[in-house]
Design the sequence.
């Protein structure tokens, strides 16, 4: 096969463009490394205060810093999850106590009040660990058999 003038022109164009494209790529890399250096300047000063950083140093320290941040974030997220569970349990317990208190204020009981109180007592005894956490107020005491005629009060 013979090369045509057009094919030869395309090859020459590709050969001429390659160094330009490569320079643009290197410039982008260098620019990004410089931005990392500026973003993490304080961190770099802590580890190597009076040294000129090479590109490899900047990249290594950036990776190290990001790993530290990731671990810190995971620890924080774990403690937040535990804290939110505790807060939920404590809030549920408080809400249950308030509902008991409110429903117990009236001397005359409607059927709805009686059913709600019964439901709360059943749900409380069915899953006490869900309603009460170790740091929250203790669960309300159940009525003794001799007080069966009186309504249990949480206070």
Sequence:
């Amino acid at each position: 096969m013979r090369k045509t003038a057009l094919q030869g022109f395309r090859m020459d164009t590709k050969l001429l463009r390659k160094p330009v494209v490569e320079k643009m790529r290197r410039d982008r890399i260098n620019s990004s490394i410089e931005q990392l250096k500026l973003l993490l300047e304080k961190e770099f000063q802590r580890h190597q205060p009076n040294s000129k950083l090479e590109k490899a140093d900047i990249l290594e320290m950036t990776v190290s810093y990001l790993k530290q941040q990731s671990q810190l974030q995971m620890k924080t997220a774990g403690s937040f999850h535990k804290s939110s569970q505790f807060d939920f349990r404590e809030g549920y317990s408080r809400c249950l106590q308030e509902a008991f208190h409110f429903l117990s204020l009236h001397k005359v009981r409607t059927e709805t009040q009686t059913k709600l109180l019964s439901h709360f007592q059943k749900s409380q005894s069915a899953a006490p660990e869900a309603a009460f956490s170790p740091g929250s107020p203790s669960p309300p005491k159940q009525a003794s058999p001799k007080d069966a005629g009186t309504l249990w009060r949480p206070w």
Q: What stands out?
A: Residues 128-148 have pLDDT under 50 and may be disordered. The two ends are 100 Å apart (CA to CA). Residues 94 and 137 are 8 Å apart (CA to CA).
